[in-house]
Amino acid sequence: MLLELKEGTNYLDKQILIDRLENMGFRVVESDANILAVIGGVDSLVVTEAFSELPNVARVLPLTSNFKLASRQTKPSNTIIKVKDVAIGGEELFIIAGPCSIESREQLEACALVAKANGAQALRGGAYKPRTSPYEFQGLGVSGLELIAEVASKHGLLAVSEVMDASQIEIAAKYLDIIQIGARNMQNYALLTELGKIKTPVLLKRGFAATYHELLMAAEYIMLAGNPNVILCERGIRSIETYTRNTLDLNAIPALQELTHLPVIADPSHGTGVRSLVLPMARAAVAAGAHGILVEMHPDPDKSISDAKQTISFATFADLAKQVKNIKNALLL
Amino acid sequence: MLLELKEGTNYLDKQILIDRLENMGFRVVESDANILAVIGGVDSLVVTEAFSELPNVARVLPLTSNFKLASRQTKPSNTIIKVKDVAIGGEELFIIAGPCSIESREQLEACALVAKANGAQALRGGAYKPRTSPYEFQGLGVSGLELIAEVASKHGLLAVSEVMDASQIEIAAKYLDIIQIGARNMQNYALLTELGKIKTPVLLKRGFAATYHELLMAAEYIMLAGNPNVILCERGIRSIETYTRNTLDLNAIPALQELTHLPVIADPSHGTGVRSLVLPMARAAVAAGAHGILVEMHPDPDKSISDAKQTISFATFADLAKQVKNIKNALLL
Amino acid sequence: MLLELKEGTNYLDKQILIDRLENMGFRVVESDANILAVIGGVDSLVVTEAFSELPNVARVLPLTSNFKLASRQTKPSNTIIKVKDVAIGGEELFIIAGPCSIESREQLEACALVAKANGAQALRGGAYKPRTSPYEFQGLGVSGLELIAEVASKHGLLAVSEVMDASQIEIAAKYLDIIQIGARNMQNYALLTELGKIKTPVLLKRGFAATYHELLMAAEYIMLAGNPNVILCERGIRSIETYTRNTLDLNAIPALQELTHLPVIADPSHGTGVRSLVLPMARAAVAAGAHGILVEMHPDPDKSISDAKQTISFATFADLAKQVKNIKNALLL
Amino acid sequence: MLLELKEGTNYLDKQILIDRLENMGFRVVESDANILAVIGGVDSLVVTEAFSELPNVARVLPLTSNFKLASRQTKPSNTIIKVKDVAIGGEELFIIAGPCSIESREQLEACALVAKANGAQALRGGAYKPRTSPYEFQGLGVSGLELIAEVASKHGLLAVSEVMDASQIEIAAKYLDIIQIGARNMQNYALLTELGKIKTPVLLKRGFAATYHELLMAAEYIMLAGNPNVILCERGIRSIETYTRNTLDLNAIPALQELTHLPVIADPSHGTGVRSLVLPMARAAVAAGAHGILVEMHPDPDKSISDAKQTISFATFADLAKQVKNIKNALLL
């Protein structure tokens, strides 16, 4: 439920109220305005009206969404996640670029150089790769994490990579600025709960057949466990179309932004699975209002060890970066 | 198959060759360059190599797509469909706006005024409505067609409306500038074949579970029957998401443009089914490269007799028209 | 709404009441028990309570489903459609078998012989073929209808074939015992309405992305237009699976039987698109409670002019017919 | 690749060949017949023809599926998994029944009694529950595992329950006869690999948008890591239908049996999500050839703490058990 405080309630009185609620066993989140969100699965067990008798409470409002901490109802203003000097979720477009898999220092250096030169703020690269087949390249593991941390830092970029299991979180948090959770693990609740115990921002990708609601509930798992820094990422869903690998669902961008205050970005590389579609769909994502985009590029796309079909060249990335900025500027006219 | 003519083949020799092929029973389409496309289901029955012995033929190339007339292989340059003074498929953005159903002269007049004032070129409105339930409003029929023809003409707009059966084509062709075929009839082959017998441009909507290939084969039915003026329209597919009515698949825009020379537009109204998503998704469609958009608006959206949930107000339409033009301009930078 | 009549209301009083309601502009359907269903889109316009004051009306009950004539609420007992000496929808399993396309008298004769010998009651074969490509075989047309009528009659089988357009109904009704509407035309409302004007039973196939509700609304179009003889057919939906052509949704069998009194059959040939799966899925359909099955067979399946991949041999059909009867018998234990 | 041995190759020569191959770094699996499967991601790196020169090798055959250990090509005969006195994958129908969540000893005892009395061989019950919302009941954890182990053992039933994270495997393997992996974790590769390190049979549920191929690749992860005891379970996929919670895809039963030698069972409870559909779909699954079924039941279904809508009563379960056995017997006629 949401508690609207009386006008003029001062900082101290607010803290006293929060303490009291927490002593009663509730989790309390301060919302933008003079509103406290009281969380904890208690909605069906307590008489919400009784809360109106607490000091300084003007009104008790129901919290109607199942996701509470992630809901825009709880926090009307956009959440801006600050990582080093980068602000994610605000006016500046957040661009993550890099190879699908980390293959070598040379490959990663080349990508970092191009990423930085074209205005990207983050370098991505897979160290642990979720592969459909156990016979395919599974990633460089920890040495990949070390490499991306070093190369990203050298070029003034944030390091972004995926973890697939709770056992990888500790080491990943040491090396990465943002930890990615892939589509296949979106409902790996044990992993989500562990991510809630650190503060490193989590880039949470939508499962390829997950609804918006389920994506938000997955974010809620992380937030409820203690980590408020969740970035949502639309990366395409399975549909009846076979020309593309996935169907990038851009409806998700404005729809999620209605439902949540968290940053929402798009991945047109996985979202299409087709190299020639990455650039136009990156533009479309930004036009739909995405706070950022994530794209896969490679010095020699055809030789990419994974996802070659959807990986773009450096030249295409330079075009893409320029065009998405033009679109972003057009939104301000 | 495609016949590449020898350099310097003159107009007369080309005509002689075309006549000869047609006398052999083939359908011949002149492609942009010095290329003739030979069509007719004959590919598996004739020895294509033998055609290289015809006069002025330099090379015989296979026509690899199943859709032939609609294929960009057959005709590399974009088809621009001219209707009165409007060119569809070229540089200018084509905007169709109007109510879901034609309800009254007043309603339609109000829409036409707003459409024109904001730069739309066409007025839409349903006279025959495909309704899931036989108990729902089925449209005004012929009187609706008369009304939209009159109002559109008065305001210098093209008239666009849907037909659902071959028996409605003759009267529709009399009143309309563009005939729409709805998603449910995309594979109504009897209807498609009849539309091939007129020259009125056809706005062909993608079925809600049809692949790009099937949409192009449906266009092929119309083209093979004699009508080359087909405009394709992405209008959302069914997916596992339930927050939106449909999932507007913007991958379709650049993907179809790779496959075909026909104009490709998007319908963010049906494609989302949610009023608040129409504007951002219209922007996204244009950013993806759509040649135009189709949107439903109403003087009083909540009172719209059909599809009220996805119908936008005049004020929103004015914003939308301005914003999509800003996006279109950004594509030219 | 449903009117429950007072106990002991006699035939004459009931007729008087029906006449009175019809004179008021309503459509009235007699339900099994002492119940009249009052249909006609009037539910939102009339005060239903007022009907309780009519003579012999004991109670007024709401009709909660959107499909009214097709609803089991309106008619609790199963509808059994009698065609010649065959009863469809009752205890006896209804088996339709034959080639995808009618190719020749020899082919059809061979199929009829095998169908009859193995206990099938109906012979199917396509005369008008809905093909994705205009370059593919489109069927023999009227001469195909003549052929199937003659061959079916000779072997004591019902003739079943598809129509694709209202213009084909008159001739089809002359030759066929059951008219099939294919998945692509399930929401061709003009066609459905025309089928309502005849009495020939209609085999209505579920669209490949249609919900149960939409299938029942399509049946409602036919029934409301005057033809109560509708047989529903589950034939597979599109899903993310690509190993099969379609995903036969057997949930549909018991689910539809909850919702409607109409007969429900299954087509494991289109529902799988894979020859080896037809037999086990035919068994499964019957075990799920289907009133019948429709299967495609051919004297030489690999040479079938259409749908060869899903067409079974005569030997497999003989096995299938035996096995589905064993399953049907097991349901009675 | 597959090595077909020369006729008459004796046991010793075969072992010498296997040792030699293993010393070369390959993994070797003995297939039914005189065939060795050589596994290990080596296919693209070695010249397969060279293997024909090894002693006793008659022919080298390509292994065409991506899943190797799970492929029926590698092992043509059905795998029968023996757990205590139960054989899974053979002629006897394997029935798993029990509550969705373990709630109390009384509840579990009641279920065990009914399960045993009606011929089920295994008792299921969730101790760790994957819930979409973090605010919902998450299961009793280890004490739930202790309870089900004790109650199952007392009644001569196998204990089946789900784990969600690698950290739960050790304790689960101590208490359970079969470890279930849920649909959301089907592609949790870290978890699958850990399950490969134990020998407890794994009941692997198909992801709700996973293809057959992906399910088999997930099984391959477990098998390649060392655990050959994998039971596949179809439990419904997401489709456009909303009347049911999921669409039980029974095509999967015969299709998977073509592709793999592993046992394949079906879960009509999750596969429908609708109580009234569980019984007919259980029959259909057995008629399609399933080696077993898994159903959720509860002493008081409406009070079930989770999945109440799809949970059947004891009386319905008794009917179901009887009817599926009748169907199973009908398959032998």
Care to describe what's here?
Four copies of one chain form a homotetramer. With 333 residues, chain A is α/β, with parallel strands linked by helices. Helices cover 33% and strands 17% of the residues of chain A. Chain A contains ten helices and 14 strands. The first copy, chain A, has helices at residues 11-23, 105-117, 142-154, 169-175, 189-195, 212-224, 252-259, 268-272, 275-288, 314-331, and strands spanning 2-5, 27-30, 35-39, 57-61, 81-83, 86-88, 94-98, 122-124, 158-162, 178-181, 202-205, 230-234, 264-266, 292-296. In chain A, strands 7-8-9-10-11-12-13-14 form an eight-stranded parallel beta barrel, surrounded by six helices. In chain A, strands 2-3-1-4 form a four-stranded antiparallel sheet, covered by helices on one side. In chain A, a hairpin with a 2-residue loop joins strand 5 and strand 6. Chain A is elongated, with a radius of gyration of 21 Å. The A-B interface holds A 209-213, 237, 239-244, 247-255, 258, 271-272, 274, 276-277, 280-281, 283-289, 323, 326-327, 329-331, 333 and B 209-213, 237, 239-244, 247-255, 258, 271-272, 274, 276-277, 280-281, 283-289, 323, 326-327, 329-331, 333.
Please tag this protein with its features:
homotetramer, 10 helices, alpha/beta
